[in-house]
Amino acid sequence: ELNGKGQAVGRPLVVGGVLQGALPNLGSRPLMLVHGLGDTIRADSRWTDLAQRFLNNGVASGVVAFEYDTQDSCANNGAFLRQYYSLLGAQKQWRHLAHSMGCVVSRCGFESGNLPIQASSNKAFFLSGPHIGSPAISVLQGSLTLSQRVFRYMVLNGFLTFENVDGSSCDVDTQRAGFSDLRSDSPLLRQLNNGAAGRHPQLDYATLGGNRRGFSYWFLDYMMGITLDDGLVNLPSANFTGMGSLQSNTAPVDHSEAITESSSLNQATNFLLP
Fold first, then answer.
1. pLDDT 10s digits, 233-255
2. Of all helices (H) and strands (E), which one includes residue 48?
3. What is the distance between the alpha carbons of residues 179 and 30, in angstroms, rounded to a whole number?
4. What is the distance between the alpha carbons of residues 113 and 84, in angstroms, rounded to a whole number?
5. CA-CA distance, 32 to 115, in Å (whole number)?
6. Which string of b and e fits 70-92 if b means at least 16 CB within 10 Å?
7. Do residues 137 and 179 lie in contact, with contact meaning Cβ atoms separated by under 8 Å?
8. pLDDT digits 0-9 by tens, 99-137
9. Separation between Cα atoms, residue 79 and residue 84, nearest integer Å
């Protein structure tokens, strides 16, 4: 949970589908944050800084976050996200910002039927989402030795955390459903993208992809033997046109910088403002 100042307060709102005490006052236009693969919002300064930014610039009247097991399937996590929305209340103009895998999880929740939120005036901004998959996942699933080297590199460089709820390190299995869902040949993405433009009537979408890698992501791509626009996702995937987005944006950021740099967050602000 994040309080009205964008600070992590250390109290989960919902555990196992059950509210933990009274809901905070989120105001009439709250913002939902959804992290990406191997990430966490819990007490992470990048996300709390982002939350404070959106409170200060008028995007949001309150901020909440959705934590999930990124090795579980996107469909399962999308269902949990829908349940979370139902517990938080419908009579609000929701703003939603998701990063990377969180974009696919969000769409699995949004596009599977009527959401338990008001019928219109809701907006979702997707940063660096692998909407048509990432070749990096296929490479990592093909070689256990390579995946171990890559994940060690990404954890040491702060790209991934893969922590359990108690903060301990989590064992990573690249063959789990959460990884398979993000492959370029993913059956889930193929189903999700079929007719997607007409399956989110309650939300307007905008997307953003990064077009720089920097040395850290350049070296990561070199290890994997591929070249990707932001280091992990290509622009046609991040800005997949079949979703019926109102905007498709580009910024000079790598995959991680999308949630920290003004060049991407200013575009998110402009779209999410009333």
1. 999 999 999 999 999 999 999 99
2. helix 45-56
3. 30
4. 15
5. 14
6. bbebbbbbbebbbebbeebeeeb
7. yes
8. 999 999 999 999 988 788 999 999 999 999 999 999 999
9. 9
